[in-house]
Specification:
Blueprint: E1 2-6, E2 10-16, E3 31-37, H1 38-50, E4 53-61, H2 64-75, E5 79-85, E6 91-96, E7 102-107, E8 130-133, H3 138-144, E9 149-153, H4 157-163, E10 169-173, E11 193-196, E12 202-205, E13 208-210, H5 225-239, H6 243-258
Parallel strand pairs: 1-4, 1-8, 2-6, 4-5, 8-9, 9-10, 10-11
Antiparallel strand pairs: 2-3, 6-7, 11-12, 12-13
Helix pairs in contact: 1-5, 3-4, 5-6
Length: 270
């Protein structure tokens, strides 16, 4: 199976703290590390663990963080197709508390790929079994629709509304105001709309409520769980399973990611 992600990459600086500090307080970290992540990067790493081939269409800054991000993504099995931009690579500071919850602060603009930029091999998307659209312009969305299956994050609502393409699945978080979705929000209406709600599971339309999958190991942190869920759903739909089975598989991917440190998707068998 050949799959791809169209989206952004962020360089993530993690710090583990007892609790996230309140206004005026100081927190002392007990561990810190750095990884390539972001919505596009995390989903691409998950898909690289599931599919025969996983590509990422993205933009990276012409700087050390951009080069480090490319190297790490490639080392983790992702085929990176990246435009090099004069703007700096976006980075984020992520605090992980004792409960494993992550709190993220991003620094710099999101670098979105553009579908009319011929430095990216957009023609390759026509041969993909599935594409997950995380960030990009309308032209990039239209290019992504050439794939057999197209899923998208609800965070790019404005692009999705203007693009007007048929989605096989629209995925959003009920815990994030920017990602809350309802059937009827887009025209044409997606074949499947999934709203996740962390430990509560979520809601699929069609399908109704679904439960969160049990964790396959100790809870470490929640960073990237939503990205792994979306990537797992994309892969399962491309594999041809029904909506209910695809959502269940996605939940297992999201749960597995919680058992790893930072950007830590895990291989899950369908």
């Amino acid at each position: 199976m050949r799959v791809a992600v169209v989206g952004h990459v962020e360089w993530i600086r993690f710090a583990r703290v007892d609790r996230v500090p309140g206004p005026g307080e100081i927190a002392h970290s007990v561990d810190d590390w750095e990884q390539a992540g972001g919505g596009g990067g995390g989903a691409a790493i998950q898909l690289a663990l599931l599919a025969d081939e996983a590509s990422l269409f993205t933009v990276l800054g012409d700087d050390d963080l951009g080069r480090r991000a490319r190297r790490e993504l490639e080392q983790r099995g992702v085929q990176v197709h990246a435009v090099v931009d004069s703007r700096p690579t976006r980075w984020a500071f992520t605090q992980v508390d004792d409960a494993g919850e992550r709190t993220i602060t991003t620094v710099g603009p999101k670098l979105r790929p553009r579908g009319h930029d011929d430095r990216l091999p957009w023609h390759e998307l026509a041969g993909m079994d599935a594409v997950f659209f995380v960030a990009g312009d309308v032209d990039a969305l239209i290019c992504a629709r050439r794939a057999r299956v197209l899923t998208a994050t609800a965070r790019e609502r404005d692009v999705l509304e203007r693009g007007g393409v048929q989605l096989d699945a629209l995925i959003g978080s009920g815990e994030d105001e920017a990602e809350r979705v309802r059937p009827g929000d887009l025209e044409p209406e997606p074949a499947l709309v999934v709203t996740t709600s962390g430990r509560l599971g979520g809601w699929a339309q069609p399908g109704g409520p679904f439960s969160a999958a049990p964790l396959p190991g100790p809870r470490v942190d929640t960073y990237g769980a939503g990205d792994s869920f979306a990537a797992g759903l994309t892969y399962a739909l491309a594999a041809g399973v029904g909506h209910a089975a695809a959502v269940q598989f996605a939940a297992r991917c999201g749960a597995a990611a919680i058992t790893g440190r930072g950007v830590a998707p895990q291989r899950v068998d369908l």
